[in-house]
């Protein structure tokens, strides 16, 4: 018998020792002696009951088991699952903002999706749904600023939703927007198309937000964005996500913003809050990289932001989650399509020739597949030396392809981002919340216990 390679030891702020298995999700509060035994790889010193429990819960496994085989199986199963087809359609490259860190170049490209290319995209999605015999379809409207060309967006949603109804396919949509063009009429139309996510970004209170996310021409956007979030917050059946992009220049503002938005301020707590860690990782925003947090700082930053969000009435789901793929864009049935009907995987690579996967013809066929497509889709984390040996693999899924490429010019390196250091904080929060509902006396007496 041996210890699982996916046993992660975590020490909390209160010096409490926690054991979390990233493959099974099982977690325990353990004594120093048990912690030492795991670090030393010594099973024999464990109490018999503890040893039996660890065997039952995958903490200790048979010598002949290669746990990477489990991961590889579920990774491939998820990658080639055909139950859903999902895509992000860029309705336009144009934008009415000029954000300082924009990875798309602050909307300087004004190419917009035409009816001809929208028809190619619609046919493509129908073809994919039929060929894969999917049970669900999801479309995310993106840009640039998608509301600049929302008329074309609604034509797409109208046709694909009707198709899905005819084929008994569940249809949902979402939109990522700066919110300034979001009217009640637009919200009602989105709701009619089963919109389950409207993401709007704020970067701080008025002065800071306006300096980071101004309109073209320099006028501030804060007041208009807040008005949009209020519309979403008050619209029954809509799920708003307030995206707060965070870097070294505005971290203090994030706390002020949470208080302003929270239960004792504007009370926009029907929305959820998502913290975006700004990366200076593309050519368009590389000059901003010096303002970005490094990987080792992210866990501590998010931990305090989660706590502050909850303090102000927002619900934060920080439970550590298993991820067979780092991102859904590794799925064979998920795509990003640009206004010129070109196909990419990640939207952060959209418009870059070296990352173009192919294009759509007038019949909605995926044509001229490029090497980048096969290169991206053949990424297998267990074939990467760093990932294969990593305790975080089952909660990371192999890392971000964009980070990987930007650091090594390859999709096949580790691509670590928002995992190491973040998972430890998630485990600590999860265990502490569960312990609040358990017997304190029992918790103190148990040598190793399921948290």
In words, what does this structure look like?
The chain has helices at residues 32-40, 48-56, 67-79, 115-132, 150-166, 184-192, 206-212, 222-234, 251-261, 295-311, 371-377, 385-388, 393-396, 401-408, 422-435, 440-445, and strands spanning 2-3, 7-11, 17-21, 27-30, 60-61, 84-90, 136-142, 170-177, 195-202, 240-246, 272-277, 334-337, 342-344, 358-360, 366-367, 448-450. It has 451 residues and is of the alpha/beta class. It folds into 2 domains: 2-65 and 421-450, no CATH class; 83-311, Aldolase class I (TIM Barrel, Alpha-Beta Barrel), CATH 3.20.20.70. It is globular, with a radius of gyration of 23 Å. The two termini are 24 Å apart.
Return residue spans where pLDDT drops below 50 for at least 5 consecutive residues.
439-451
Number of helices, counting only DSSP H or I runs of 4 residues or more? 16
Radius of gyration: 23 Å
Shape: globular
* The CATH H-level homologous superfamily of the largest domain: Aldolase class I
- What is the averaged pLDDT score? 92
CATH architecture identity of the largest domain? Alpha-Beta Barrel
Main sheet?
10 strands, mixed
State the CATH topology of the largest domain: TIM Barrel
Strand content: 15-25%
* Fraction of residues in H or I helices: 25-40%
CATH class of the largest domain: Alpha Beta
Counting DSSP E segments of at least 2 residues, the number of strands comes to: 16
In short:
37% of the residues lie in helices and 17% in strands.
Describe the structure using short key phrases.
451 residues; alpha/beta; TIM Barrel; 2 domains; 10-stranded mixed sheet; 4-stranded antiparallel sheet; disordered C terminus
